[in-house]
Design a protein that fits this description.
It is built from no helices and 18 strands. It is mainly beta. A hairpin with a 2-residue loop joins strand 17 (176-179) and strand 18 (182-185).
């Protein structure tokens, strides 16, 4: 990066021409003070940053692990209806969140309810599994539901767990970004 700004996308300064999930200009890299930052300017499929430590994920937030793109949604508490019966005739078993699988093209796929406590995501074992995704580790990540909050942490996966950026974000040397199907590594040198 020679100047103060660099773009990334199908027609950006960093060209990602062969990726159908990348906008013409998907990302903008810029300096804020002495720190390098990135901003999603293309919308669509987003920019994802690899987790280094446990992080809270709020409703509307997204994760990527392997080939999976997952959206977090709330599950509202059921309230008793007339005569004390539960809405839809089902008791409230306490689920407060669900992960929605986003398929290629943006269609919604499977929905996975998350229980209070730890919910393991993986390929071979866990509460939420993706047995046909070779990029998901056997034990990949844990989603911890603590009352009405959710925290995510990677448990030593080979390919990492990534969260979607919705605001300009400062980057550190060695950070990894997923843009479409492309994995980028940030290298920042002091000058």
């Amino acid at each position: 990066m020679g100047g103060q700004e660099l773009t990334c996308g199908a027609r950006g300064d960093i060209p990602l021409e062969d990726d159908p999930f990348v906008a013409a200009t998907q990302a903008r890299f810029f300096f804020t003070g002495r720190r390098l930052a990135v901003e999603d300017v293309g919308g669509g499929n987003g920019i994802f940053l690899r987790l280094h430590q446990e992080r809270e994920l709020t409703t509307g937030g997204e994760l990527r692990l392997g080939r999976q793109r997952l959206l977090l949604e709330p599950v509202p508490a059921l309230t008793p209806g007339a005569g004390g019966a539960m809405v839809w005739g089902s008791p409230d078993v306490g689920y407060r969140f669900r992960l929605i699988q986003i398929l290629e093209g943006g269609a919604r796929g499977a929905a996975f309810l998350l229980r209070d406590g730890e919910n393991l995501l993986g390929r071979e074992s866990g509460d939420v599994t993706f047995p046909n995704d070779g990029f998901v580790s056997g034990r990949h990540a844990v989603l911890q539901v603590r009352q009405d909050r959710l925290f995510v942490r990677d448990v030593g996966s080979s390919n990492g767990t990534f969260f979607r950026l919705f605001a300009p974000t400062a980057l550190d040397n060695g950070d990894h970004l997923l843009i479409g199907r492309e994995l980028l590594r940030v290298e920042v040198s002091e000058r």
